[in-house]
């Protein structure tokens, strides 16, 4: 087994500024090594059993020294794993990607480098600043601001050349040396009135841009408490921001949107919030818990030859059933004699992924429709197996039970998910939430149960958006004020209600 390492540019921050190749590397990785500039949302794309290693924290540029990072990567690759090393921006732009590549080469480990959108260009773009422009700059220069103590001993930076070349200057890692940077440029002849922009957390919902001039920028930065990660842009292209700033004009730019959801709701709302420039905070309220050491399920599988029908009504039901089948040493062939019914297209797909085409997928995705369709075909001697959730509705078992033998096996249950409780209370207490969205009554109830009624007042200080009248009624019954209600029960209408509220 031979491992391989991908050094992947994760882009400047916006979730969608990642290459297709980069995404593929994330999805295939056995191990992901990432630091603080890579968007953590990407980790959701990883395989469920992917090992995730964080190597950087907010207060210092590198938590793990570079040698240790290299060692971790090398070790994992030696174990035969696919390692994806996610690096903010482009791996070769002050990312020490070159050093990591050299270390891999010297260890004889295969690697590939996937370029990314560097903050030095993409970050400026989202701040409305084109790095070149025919009327302003015909070259650009990306410079490290991480300077040695005594500049005179630092021949890497030719201040005189930089001050006089006329192109756009972009300094990375330069906040701590801002005074020195501006002084050196002016000393070598750069006009003190040259426009400067300081762009912090570029391309993210919390992007902040401060503009000034070379002679005043240091004082401005102190006054505005500018902190890393920040790009320093020097040049007249900064002025174009007034016409080219599209990102900060997005309807949810800078807004924190708490998205409460039950397990079935897709993440399309989360994606929409990001597309509109906002920060989605996902709060799951329900979690699936598999019933452990399920003797009844094991028994049913061992006696699978005695059944004639298998009904699966959710993706979870499919996964748990087939995992158990596998654990007991069987595979899909053990089900060859059965008629398999799947309720819902997602369930049918999950069954197909396990190598079986469902014999019956009711036209409407509810139990009643399946009963209707099975009523005519089931015979008294049939035996139906239904592995499913503990708290599922009775209709299937009752109706079909009138025709033949039906065996319901509980395989999982939905329980309240309290994993985000602390985060949610803290965010609400610190007024760090602009909107809270609810897409069902059940979610409202679970959310309030999780939070406790003490926090209702805090919830009322945010803007609560409801998907429709039923959800709104549940909210109002709990004395939660509804700020806006969607015109129809869809995610698009929910977003519309939120945006329309500005
Ligand atoms: N390889 C990265 C740069 C790594 S050096 C790239 O290509 O973008 C780290 C520096 O990059 C930070 O100190 C900051 O100056 C800059 N930087 C990276 N991402 C940034 C962002 N989203 N906003 C502002 N500056 C950023």
From TrEMBL:
Gene Ontology biological process: methylation; siroheme biosynthetic process
Keyword set, alphabetical order: Methyltransferase, Porphyrin biosynthesis, S-adenosyl-L-methionine, Transferase
NCBIfam families: cobA_cysG_Cterm (TIGR01469), PRK06136.1 (NF004790)
SUPFAM superfamilies per UniProt: HemD-like, Tetrapyrrole methylase
GO MF entries: uroporphyrin-III C-methyltransferase activity; uroporphyrinogen-III synthase activity
Gene name of the record: cobA
EC number: 2.1.1.107
Superkingdom as given in the UniProt entry: Bacteria
Keyword Transferase found: yes
Name listed for the protein in its UniProt record: uroporphyrinogen-III C-methyltransferase
PANTHER family listed in its UniProt record: S-ADENOSYL-L-METHIONINE-DEPENDENT UROPORPHYRINOGEN III METHYLTRANSFERASE, CHLOROPLASTIC, SIROHEME SYNTHASE-RELATED
């Amino acid at each position: 087994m031979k491992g391989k390492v991908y050094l992947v540019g994760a882009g400047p921050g916006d979730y969608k500024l990642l290459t297709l190749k980069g995404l593929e590397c994330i999805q295939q990785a056995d191990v992901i090594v990432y630091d603080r500039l890579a968007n953590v949302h990407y980790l959701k794309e990883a395989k469920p059993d992917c090992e995730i290693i964080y190597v950087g924290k907010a207060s210092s540029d590198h938590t793990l020294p570079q040698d240790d990072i290299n060692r971790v990567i090398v070790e994992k690759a030696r174990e035969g794993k696919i390692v994806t090393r996610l690096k903010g921006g482009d791996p070769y732009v002050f990312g020490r990607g070159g050093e990591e590549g050299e270390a891999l080469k010297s260890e004889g480990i295969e690697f590939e480098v996937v370029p990314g959108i560097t903050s030095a260009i993409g970050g400026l773009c989202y701040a409305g600043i084109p790095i070149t422009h025919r009327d302003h700059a015909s070259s650009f220069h990306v410079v490290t601001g991480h300077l040695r103590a005594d500049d005179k001993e630092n021949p890497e930076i030719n201040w005189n050349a930089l001050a006089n070349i006329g192109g756009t200057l972009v300094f990375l890692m330069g906040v701590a040396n801002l005074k020195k940077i501006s002084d050196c440029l002016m000393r070598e002849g750069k006009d003190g009135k040259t426009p400067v922009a300081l762009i912090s957390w570029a391309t993210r919902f919390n992007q902040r841009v401060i503009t000034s001039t070379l002679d005043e920028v240091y004082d401005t930065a102190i006054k505005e408490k500018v902190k890393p990660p920040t790009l320093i842009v020097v040049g007249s292209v900064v002025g174009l921001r007034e016409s080219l700033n599209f990102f900060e004009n997005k309807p949810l730019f800078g807004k924190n949107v708490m998205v409460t959801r039950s397990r079935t709701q897709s993440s399309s709302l989360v994606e929409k919030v990001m597309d509109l420039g906002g920060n989605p905070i996902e709060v799951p309220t329900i979690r699936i818990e598999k019933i452990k050491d399920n003797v009844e399920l094991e028994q049913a599988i061992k006696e699978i030859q005695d059944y004639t029908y298998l009904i699966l009504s959710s993706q979870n039901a499919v996964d748990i059933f087939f995992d158990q089948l596998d654990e007991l040493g069987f595979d899909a062939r053990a089900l060859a004699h059965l008629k398999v019914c799947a309720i819902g297209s997602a369930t049918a797909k999950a069954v197909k992924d396990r190598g079986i085409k469902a014999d019956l997928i009711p036209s409407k995705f509810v139990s009643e429709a399946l009963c209707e369709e099975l009523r005519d075909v089931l015979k008294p001697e049939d035996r139906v197996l239904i592995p499913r959730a503990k708290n599922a509705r009775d209709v299937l078992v009752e109706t079909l039970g009138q025709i033949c033998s039906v065996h319901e096996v509980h395989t999982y249950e939905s329980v309240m998910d309290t994993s985000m409780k602390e985060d949610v209370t803290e965010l609400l207490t610190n007024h760090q939430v602009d909107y809270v969205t609810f897409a069902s009554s059940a979610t409202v109830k679970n959310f309030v149960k999780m939070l406790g009624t003490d926090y209702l007042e805090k919830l009322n200080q945010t803007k609560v958006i409801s998907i429709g009248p039923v959800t709104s009624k549940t909210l109002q019954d709990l004395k939660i004020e509804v700020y806006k209600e969607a015109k129809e029960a869809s995610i698009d209408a929910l977003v519309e209600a939120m945006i329309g509220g500005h």
